[in-house]
Design a protein that fits this description.
With 72 residues, the chain is mainly alpha-helical. The chain has one domain (2-70). The chain has three helices and no strands.
Length: 72
């Protein structure tokens, strides 16, 4: 984002009113959203590891086998 803004580019989201680089709190909102995204990545990784620790591996192997069957 810093590279984009260094070129003078401003952005406004039509669907999310708080994503607006033309307003006063633009840096604060981007920082908050970045922190939330990072936390979600950590939680997703934990959920994935938790699923793979038990019967989750069976589901992974089913998907791998299906993919291998589709390959020429």
């Amino acid at each position: 984002m810093q590279r984009v803004t260094s070129y003078g580019v401003e952005y406004t989201s039509y669907t999310e009113q708080y994503l607006d680089s033309t307003r006063l709190f633009k840096d604060a909102m981007i920082g908050i959203l970045a922190a939330v995204a990072k936390q979600e990545r950590v939680r997703m990784s934990e959920r994935t590891r938790g699923g793979l620790s038990g019967r989750g591996w069976e589901a992974v192997w089913v998907v791998v086998r299906r993919c291998l069957k589709m390959m020429p």
